[in-house]
Amino acid sequence: MLKGAIDSLDSKQAALFKNLVKFYETKQYKKGLKQADKLLEQKPNHAESMAMKAIFLYFTGQKSEGLDLSKKALMKNLKSDIAWHIHGIINRTNRNYQEAINCYKKALDISPDNVQILRDLALLQVQIRDVEGLCDTRKKLLLNKESLIINWVAYAFSLHLKGSIEECLKVIDSIINITKNNPLKGIEKTEFCLYHAQVYADGGNYEMQLKILEQNEEGILDKVALNEQRIKAYLKLNKQDQAIQCIEKLIEINPQNRNYFNLLKQARGLPEIPANEEERLKIVSFFEEIGAKYNSNIISYMALDFSKGQDFENKLIKYITPYFRKGIPSLFSELKHLYQDNEKVQIIEKVLLNNLASLQKESKFPNSDAIESPCCLLWNYMLLAQHFDRVNQLTKALEYVNLAINHTPTLIELYLVKAKIYKHQFNHKVAFENADKARTMDLADRYLNNKAIKYALRCGFFDQANDLLRLFLKDPSEGNPFELQTLWYEIAQGETLLKKGEYARALRMFKFVQKAFIDIYEDQFDFHTYCIRKYNLNTYTNLLNYENGVYNQKPFIYGSTLLVQSLMEYITVRLVEIKKKEEEELRIKNMTQMEKKKWKKQQEIEAEKAAKDPNVEFRKKHDLDGEEFRNSQPLVEANHVAKQLIHTKVSNPQLKFKSSYVLVDFYIETNRPLLLIKALNKVISSNHCANGIHLAKLKAAIYLEKFLKGDKLNEHVKKYSEEALHNILNGKTIEQFNTEYISKNTSSNGCYKNALHALKCDIVLGKANKEQLLKFHEDLLMNRNDLTLQQATQLFDEFIKLNDFNYKNEVSEKLQKQFPESEYYFGKYRFDEKTHLELAQQQQQQDSNKK
């Protein structure tokens, strides 16, 4: 490797260059930089020395200088494999993988047998899933040194990744033959044998999978993984009896694993969901049978799903009574899924009220002679509060949680339950106060801290939320909470900022979400060498499969959707901001000397206040005010995110609709007809929100009709656009298409939703405007007294946005009177952290004066 680099150097200079390589390998970059400068003083045009200096600069924080010098080194000698390799390393570190691969290939053209470059190339090829190239590179490494077993393993894995199962199995057989004299042992043998069996399974040869597992059973240390593989193979081969034997072994090891009982149910030939009463009774009988055989709480839990009537009531009583006696606060979270069945909801309420009456009267459960601890009454109060909160009887829920607090005011969980009830009343300020009280009762509990943060964000108390989040950093004063990748925190803060109309700050939060997922995907790079070396091949396969779908996860899709939406809305807002800034500059310019003096004085006072605020520096350091976006190109940024979003697979219908609907608006705005059609098809396939689907179709039809009237259209684009327009309108005009839908869906029962939808359609058609929509919301909120709290809050949010986020109006005052428990949500101080703190201080002062 070094021969070509030192040919033009004398012996002393060659020694210096070898030291440079050692400093790089031992990560002594500062020493290497000094040595490189010393060598370049003697040989200023030596390309390899320049390249080494470039990488030292890059890894000492001078990234742009390092990259520039790396390019200059290449210009000095385009035939230097070291210069190309180093330029590739810098690009790899910059996450510019394709450019790095090109550099490595250039280096290999010059030095085709360089093992280090081949290894680096293989790592990048698996990172970008270039499996064809990976197989070629791994084969070259194998041929370079066939005695190294790890090269055989890596080549086998690359073939498996490519889907060449037969070739992969041949290589695995070669590995077994090579290691006969020195066989693998312990965990390495376990991992390799399980992987060997899994490759057969991936090829559909389950008989051979079982044979491999049987032959190596004694050497496989992980008996759980062994039996799990066997179960899958037996079920594929319809060998239920053998599968049941393996499942029973696993249940003996872990009787609390729900998956094992589901597998046992499957092996017994029982359906996942019963299609009729006969199947339901068979499943109930199955759980009764295994319940008598195994001492497992999970069986009683699973049996509740399939029980009905009196049988369900008996099983429920049997299940929850030990929870009351042991004082387990998580009971309600285990019962939540039962609330989809109204009959079961009524039975739960009946059982809890019967318990309450009996415990209050005799300190006993119904039909029991045992005197219970007072704590049983406490847990019953708490569960009743959670139950009534779930069924939206919030007054009753508050009544029971207050009874529980009066009974035991030191139980932390009660304040979280109370906070949740107030949250459902949209009284976010009181909800936060209760959550914060729970937090202060145990300052070492991170879960309580996170709950308080969530409630603070709903109120718009961002500085408080940031302060709370920093409490659990190693260095609360200097640490960056956004490095924690707390996606829920960033999304929650971004959503609240959107409701405030602070788009630049919201964009910063959604960018943090994007960055977190990019980092998660990039983190796999460190495992490409480790997993092969440690033979963790099945785990490695699972990791790669997970990373392939990392961008299909709900937080990424939701965060990206809000990011695109925010960027589009920010385009309009930024124009207003620029206009206001220009007007302000003109106003200052036209001020008299006296006015300018007063203005400067005011600016100094505000700057002084800001300097005293400990959060100002924190916000500035992490750009929480989104200054980056004030000077960016929003459409370019949105296009990058939309490109990722359009290719994601979304299973949740509501999320699929929302993400695709936003893309419909975006691609209309950016004049991209083919991508618009793709987004529209995703909206339609979501089968969620008929009115929303109609509105998306209407927008697309108007755009496509106008687009097709243009000149010099691409024939391919024109053809698909015409087909899409025909599929939407089905031979009708746009007016007929809209009128037909509206007339079919006009409700005569006074429902406002269809009337609101009709008005939105008129706005799209140009028959109405934003002012009419604002008036519609205002009239609805002022004159309708039959709106539910959820309906009122949704309409109020839309009204405030249409009203340029002005909270001080008659609608706000009317809703505060109509929903006094939600006064804060509809109030003029909503999301106002400063006023909230001032009011809290005033209240504390008043309480102090009374005392």
TrEMBL record:
SMART domains found in the cross-reference section: TPR (SM00028)
Keyword terms: Receptor, Repeat, TPR repeat
A cellular component term, taken from the record's GO annotations: cytoplasm
Keyword presence, RNA-binding: no
Membrane-crossing segments per the record: none
InterPro entries (UniProt xref): NatA_aux_su, TPR-like_helical_dom_sf, TPR_rpt
Highest rank taxon of the organism: Eukaryota
TPR repeat locations: 81-114, 224-257
UniProt-recorded name of the protein: NMDA receptor-regulated protein
Origin species: Tetrahymena thermophila (strain SB210)
